[in-house]
């Protein structure tokens, strides 16, 4: 699955992605997969963010608050659980 296909989940066109929380795989590994799929990985949520991938615990309340704030201003940032992200990654890597 390409970024263009994944982007149908968001109105954003930037390809920007942010991780938050404890991930089941190392964050560097997850970021590497995202980059291979065409995403730009950032540390902070911004108006250019398309997706925030949330881990299983210790999700940053400030990042979620920023998503809510930006979405109230007209952005359409999607929050995706890590398992959904990993499922999308596995489909992309296997192809």
Give structural notes.
This protein is an alpha/beta fold. Helix content is 41%, strand content 19%. It has helices at residues 3-6, 27-36, 61-72, 82-94, and strands spanning 16-20, 40-42, 49-54, 78-81. A 4-stranded parallel beta sheet has the order 2-1-3-4, with helices on both faces. It is globular.
Q: What is the CA-CA span between the terminal residues?
A: 8 Å
Structural class estimated from helices and strands: alpha/beta
Beta strand count:
4
Along the chain, the helix and strand elements come as HEHEEHEH
Our estimate of the beta-strand percent is 15-25%
Give the averaged pLDDT, no decimals.
Answer: 83
Note the main sheet: 4 strands, parallel
Please bin the fraction of helical residues. Answer: 40-55%
Task: Supply database-style keywords.
single chain; 95 residues; alpha/beta; 41% helix
């Amino acid at each position: 699955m390409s970024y263009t296909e994944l982007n149908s989940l968001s109105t954003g066109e930037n390809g920007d992605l942010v991780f938050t929380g404890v991930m089941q795989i190392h964050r560097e590994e997850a970021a590497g997969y995202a980059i291979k799929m065409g995403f730009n990985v950032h540390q902070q949520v911004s108006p250019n963010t398309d997706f925030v991938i949330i881990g299983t615990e210790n999700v940053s309340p400030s990042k979620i608050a920023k998503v809510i704030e930006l979405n109230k201003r007209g952005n359409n940032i999607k929050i995706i659980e890590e398992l959904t992200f990993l499922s999308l990654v596995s489909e992309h890597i296997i192809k």
